[in-house]
Amino acid sequence: MFYAAETQITLVIDRDGEVRDVSIEKDEYDDLGLEFESFLMDKKQSCSNKCVFCFIDQLPPGMRETLYFKDDDARLSFLQGNYVTLTNMTQEDVDRIIEMRLGINVSVHTTNPELRVKMMHNRFAGQKLDFLWQMARAGIQLNCQIVLCPGLNDGKELERTLTDLGSMLPHLTSMAIVPLGMTKYREGLYPLQPTTKESASDALDIIERFQQEFLEKHGTRAAFPSDEFFIMAERPIPDADYYEGYPQYENGVGMLRSLADEFHEALEVAEAEQLPRKVTIPTGRSPYAFLSELTREAEAKFEGLTVQIIPIRNDFFGETITVTGLITGQDLIAQLKDIDIGDELLLSSAMVRRDSDVFLDDYTVPQIEAALHTKVRIVPSDGWEFLDAILGIRY
């Protein structure tokens, strides 16, 4: 894609040992029509780490094979927004990223080299941080991620990491700080401490102090905690201005604020024609209170509308998992089978595989409909579409 963007290019074709050159003139960025078996032209690069917080290492046995694959591919970072650790990259890889001006997302976790080696169980993890500095100095657009593990990279270590990453501004676009996820399948793994209300509050205090410093020096907060920290610390979700255009939205940073603002905009102009109507919305325990407050506003505006929010206990992965995106089909069936669902069951699109109707445990939407004797509607993370689904509006 990079080399084919020019207006004049030469292809060197080797066919059965016969080599010839083909000169091509075209408009800039025109597609050459070359097709490869894989859009990466070879296999995905896999992860060479064994991070103490790795969620894949905490999966139960017997799930579909693709869920156990750990990708760590800079090309997928550029193309799809995946996060990479840099540990399986070479200097040649970094030079190519710099030459092509590819923006990538990096899982940093800590800038303390020794601690990074410990957290990733990779003896090269510390020295590969130099690649991050190289790319920053070259002006490569970087988004970074820190999975915060209480007792390891929080407190003074978090302060060190934010200080070091802050020195890369403005080349570093943003940083997301997210809490670790702990399932019940941790036998033989590193003894991690779960995130508590106190540790979430401490993390928010540190992040907000650095945000103010970055804002004064660089005009951006740069570092953003995920929504879960505010929920665990029992603090209100900030306003939209706080998120500066949501650069870390896919990391769960500002999702609830964006959803609420869109929902309120839609509520101002919405009209309901399907009343009376009752819908049921299962959700993770983490966003339960926030969503309940939103839907009560819809009920207050539309007489005859009933919205039932059900917090789902995650028996599949363990009760410490409280996000909606990790709810499985079998947990939905077990916990909703005795509930009057009403006219429709509304499920977040985060529960199913992208562009499919398959849950993490390989249950499907038709199976849910059959087991619960109800209609299911998959709803994207968009406030307008969320309200449309609640009101039964279809386009």
Write a concise synopsis of the structure shown:
With 395 residues, the chain is of the alpha/beta class.
What features would you describe in this structure?
The protein has helices at 74-80, 91-100, 113-120, 129-137, 156-166, 197-218, 227-232, 255-269, 288-301, 329-336, 365-372, 383-391; strands spanning 8-15, 18-25, 83-84, 104-107, 142-148, 172-179, 223-225, 277-284, 305-312, 344-348, 376-379. It is built from twelve helices and eleven strands. It has three domains: 1-35, no CATH class; 56-252, pyruvate-formate lyase- activating enzyme (Alpha-Beta Horseshoe), CATH 3.80.30.10; 259-391, Rossmann fold, CATH 3.40.50. The radius of gyration is 24 Å and the shape is globular. The model has no long low-confidence stretch (mean pLDDT 94). The protein is an alpha/beta fold. Helix 8 (255-269) packs across helix 12. The strands form three sheets. The protein has a five-stranded parallel β-sheet. A four-stranded parallel β-sheet has the order 9-8-10-11, sandwiched between helices. A two-stranded antiparallel ribbon has the order 1-2.
